[in-house]
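Hi C.,

You asked whether I'd gotten around to modeling the 234-residue construct. I have! Everything is below, sequence then structure, no commentary in between.
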Amino acid sequence: MSDAPSVQQFGPDRAAGYDDRIRRLCPGYDVLQDTVASVLAARLPERAHLLVAGAGTGAEIVRMGQAHSGWRFTAVDPSPAMLDRCRSNVSDAGLENRVEYLDAAVEEMPGAQSFDAATSLLVTHFIDGRAATQRYVRGLAERLPPGAPLVWADLHRPASDEAFRTLWAAWRTQMRARLDADTVEDAFEEIEEGISFVRPAALTHIVTDAGFTPPTPIYRQLLWGGWIASRRAD
């Protein structure tokens, strides 16, 4: 897998079905989106410019844009198919005049533009290897001034292997109530092959080493987690 989230994983077919698929795999997805929007609303002024890394189909842009008329967004994603879905959803929501798009990885963004906040929702668990994850997080840090918040969410691995096995089994059980058995097996095979589960201690080290404060948890549902950290002044 490359240093950035794999574009090949999100071609036109995968992009078209993403919104339905993620809500089946992550039953708390909409709660996560509401939580992120609320956390940022408590930190940001009426007018703000947000970097949305791995913008995907634009769910957080639509959610935050509809609630905050003074917020603007730069949507960054290495998958053209996902950005096309993002553009469509943003247009349907009437927010097209407040969103810019960039087909690239965060580390490849041109210029030195700075943002008031950044989000990275369900992105880093697609990045293979700690070094690549560190580069990605540092790329986010470089775009934020001191005090600016970064909010992110990903699949994570608890410190205890026993806890991981318990939550993994619970997740599979939860999915069997929503999807047929073959679909669940295929989905979890893909997850085992393509997801990098980061332990909390490693996550804290990566984030603080990139120039952020230690992360504060804001969301937890089985193996799905969300955190916030602020760009340090040093």
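If it helps when you're writing up: Strands lie at 48-53, 71-77, 99-103, 117-121, 149-155, 216-221, 224-230.

Thanks,
B.
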